[in-house]
Design brief:
Strand order of the largest sheet: 2-1-5-4-3
Shape: rod-shaped
Distance between the termini: 140 Å
Largest sheet: 5 strands, antiparallel
Mean pLDDT: 87
Number of helices: 17
CATH topology of the largest domain: Rhopdopsin 7-helix transmembrane proteins
CATH architecture of the largest domain: Up-down Bundle
Helix content: 55-70%
Radius of gyration: 46 Å
Structural class: alpha+beta
CATH class of the largest domain: Mainly Alpha
Order of helices and strands: HHHHHHHEEHHHHEEEHHEHHEEHEEEHE
Number of domains: 3
Number of strands: 12
Strand content: 15-25%
């Protein structure tokens, strides 16, 4: 019984449509990742169009059902070659194949329309496909390295099978040429076997192309894994990979061992809680909360504890990743202990006096703003006390500048001992000090503090076996009685201070005092 070639073509069409769906999915997922997939997708689409034109022969013009259909097959085969070259990055000039396809189109048109000749068309079709598939076989089996993978060799062998089928078809036609000029008139082995072979090979070719993509994906995964492993272990920072659910450590790098002191075997399969890495548990809660909320943490400065118990300031960054389908966390910790210490030292230098360690003018202003907000909110009083050491120039001239520095440092210590911790003692420069008393009850309480300061200056300063006398003059201004702003308070306390200095020194005076009375001195001196 003769085989219905249209039925065979319809089977081929169904196979191509399935392949088109598969390749479309592949193209949609990886077209931005790999080049060449677009050409493969167009090839399968052209093959399907060609089969539809074949089946419609007799119902549409011969030029469409014969010439365009077979040209679509050849162009599709060429696009496979172009796509493979793009996929593997092996570009080469395409003008010879463009010339081949042009010559094929012209010759095939003549054999199909001008002088219909099935024998010549079959020879042209097989010869053109042989030339194109031979290039694919050469590319996959010879030009690409042997380690390219089994999918590469499989694609080359399928192309080689195409060459063999077409060569055999050419040989059979040359030996036993057919006198029938109608392709669908009868179905012989010479006609059916090549079509079945094309159908089977087309199925295997699509499978091979899918395997090529999978092979490349596996290669990329291995490459990325190798890069990750090298970067993970070579990083100069502490790198730690943990499970998201229980915080158990999966892997640590050498940097982790060097920075924390814990060896690889000591850390892996333990949790950060087991190792007591977090100095403050609250910091760990903040980290876990931020990681759960945002999926990543950037430059979180926090305190850690090393194996030997010493504290370490770490700069922590982390990302959530999926490892074998399990949510994990990869964290990077840089030891910034020294940088933090230096930063604190710089901040200290910027806000404190280098000689005495007291707050400087800028920090005093900042603290006054805080104290002012508190006093305004709670209806409290404050006091600003300006203080100068008496005869400090004589001390420098008589005992030297080193002795003068010792006196300043001792004055700072005694002043700090004379007030509460919440009060501020600042050095504005030279022998000029300014005190800020929080929440004072008024003149009486402030006068007590001034008397205490003067009493603390009764003892001389000992320096290199010498007793250097220490005395001070103070001026006091109250908020809000004397002024509501710092500039005015400082001016009024300075005016009271200068009054004391011009009236015998070693005493204090309130800015509110208007009478030309002598400065007040502590009871021990009166």
């Amino acid at each position: 019984m003769p085989v219905d070639l249209r039925t065979l073509m319809l089977m081929n069409l169904i196979t191509n449509l399935v392949a088109l769906v598969i390749m479309g999915i592949l193209w949609g997922q990886y077209r931005r990742r790999y080049r060449g997939l677009s050409q493969w997708l167009v090839n399968i689409a052209l093959q399907a169009i060609a089969i539809i034109l074949f089946v419609l022969r007799g119902r549409i013009p011969d030029f469409a059902s014969i010439v365009l259909a077979n040209l679509a097959v050849q162009v599709g085969t060429w696009l496979i070659l172009v796509g493979l070259r793009e996929f593997f990055g092996r570009k080469s000039p395409q003008w010879p194949n463009v010339a081949l396809l042009t010559a094929f189109a012209l010759a095939f048109t003549r054999a199909a329309v001008v002088s219909p000749d099935l024998h010549a068309r079959t020879l042209l079709l097989s010869a053109c496909m042989t030339a194109l598939t031979a290039q694919i076989a050469w590319l996959m089996l010879v030009r690409l390295p042997r380690e390219s993978g089994s999918a590469t060799r499989l694609t080359g062998l399928i192309a080689l099978a195409y060459v063999a089928v077409n060569a055999a078809r050419i040989a059979v036609i040359l030996v036993r040429p057919s006198t029938n000029n109608d392709f669908f008139a009868s179905a012989t082995l010479v006609t059916v076997v090549p079509i079945l072979a094309y159908l089977i090979l087309a199925m295997f070719l699509v499978l091979a192309l899918v395997l090529l993509v999978n092979q490349r994906l596996l290669e990329d995964v291995r490459t990325q894994e190798e890069k990750f492993t090298k970067a993970f272990h070579a990083a100069p920072y502490a790198m730690v990979l943990t499970r998201m659910d229980d915080g158990r450590i999966i892997e640590v790098n050498r940097g982790f061992e060097e920075i924390t002191g814990y060896g690889h075997t000591e850390a892996v399969r333990k949790t950060t809680r087991d190792l007591r890495l977090w100095k403050k548990p609250d910091n760990r809660k903040l980290f876990v909360s931020a990681l759960s909320r945002y999926g990543s943490v950037r430059n979180m400065e926090t305190e850690f504890r090393k194996k030997d118990g010493t504290d370490m300031t770490g700069m922590l960054s982390a990302e959530t990743i999926s490892l074998n389908g399990q949510p994990c966390v990869i964290a990077c910790i840089g030891d910034v202990t020294e940088q933090t210490r230096m930063r604190e030292q710089l901040r200290e230098l910027a806000s404190h006096d280098a000689l005495t360690g007291l707050p400087n003018r800028r920090l005093f202003y900042d603290r006054f703003e805080v104290a002012l907000a508190n006093a305004t909110r709670n209806g409290k009083k404050m006091a600003v006390i300006s203080l100068d050491l008496d005869n400090f120039k004589d001390i420098n001239d008589t005992f030297g500048h080193e002795a003068g520095d010792a006196v300043l440092a001792e004055a700072a210590r005694r002043l700090a001992c004379s007030v509460r911790k919440l009060d501020t003692v600042a050095r504005f420069g030279g022998d000029e000090f300014v005190l800020l008393l929080w929440e004072t009850l008024g003149e009486a309480e402030t006068a007590e503090v001034a008397s205490r300061i003067l009493a603390n200056f009764d003892e001389p300063c000992q320096f290199s076996g010498k007793a250097i006398p220490m005395r001070a003059s103070l001026g006091i201004a109250l908020y809000p009685d004397d002024a509501a702003d710092l500039a005015t308070l400082l001016r009024k306390s300075d005016e009271a201070l200068y009054y004391v200095k011009s009236h015998g020194r070693d005493g204090y005076r309130l800015a509110s005092e208007r009478a030309a009375s002598p400065p007040t001195r502590p009871p021990s001196l009166s």
